[in-house]
Amino acid sequence: MLLFMVSCSAGGEDAEDAEPDSTAATATEGTDAACDGSTQADLNDCAIGELRDAEGKLEDVLTDVRPHAGARSEALAESQRLWLEYRDVFCEAHAFEEGSIQPLNVASCKTALTQARIDDVCSWLVPNAEPDAVGDYPETCR
């Protein structure tokens, strides 16, 4: 069994749609600060914040890669749509813990898969290439 861990712990129920508690210690965009929350709600909010950061970076990568995709841009868009479906279903099924930790488990799973997707999209653009060897390689992939 695979376990996904982030600096907050692991998460859940409607994690993608949940709004972080504004009073909780949450990850903020552009930071790698570890969550120092003392409650499960704080940890859940942190994991959801980390997921949002990863999703934002993936969107940036996709925006940068699309112009380079040429005739493959439709395939990239379709693969992204199917990947999101897969990620969401997989992580909901994977979050076996019930209760207050479930949002953390789901969000952590989605974050790990989203970070892997970023690498996949970048390598999909130029398979087996070193970023510095490609003159117009998107900066978000470096």
Topology:
Layout: H1 40-69, H2 73-94, H3 102-125
Please describe what this structure looks like.
With 142 residues, this protein is an all-alpha fold. The chain has one domain (40-141): Substrate Binding Domain Of Dnak, Chain:A, Domain 2. Helices cover 54% and strands 0% of the residues. The longest helix is centred in the middle third of the chain and has 30 residues, at 40-69. It starts with 39 loop residues before the first helix and ends in a 17-residue tail after the last helix. Residues 1-32 have low confidence and may be disordered.
Radius of gyration: 16 Å
Number of helices: 3
| Whole-number mean pLDDT | 77
CATH class: Mainly Alpha
Output the structural class: mainly alpha
CATH architecture: Up-down Bundle
First-last Cα distance: 32 Å
Main sheet record: none
Strand/helix succession: HHH
* Tally of domains: 1
The CATH topology: Substrate Binding Domain Of Dnak, Chain:A, Domain 2
The portion of residues forming beta strands comes to under 5%
Main traits of this protein?
Substrate Binding Domain Of Dnak, Chain:A, Domain 2; mainly alpha; 142 residues; 3 helices; single chain; disordered N terminus
Quick description:
The chain has 142 residues and is mainly α.
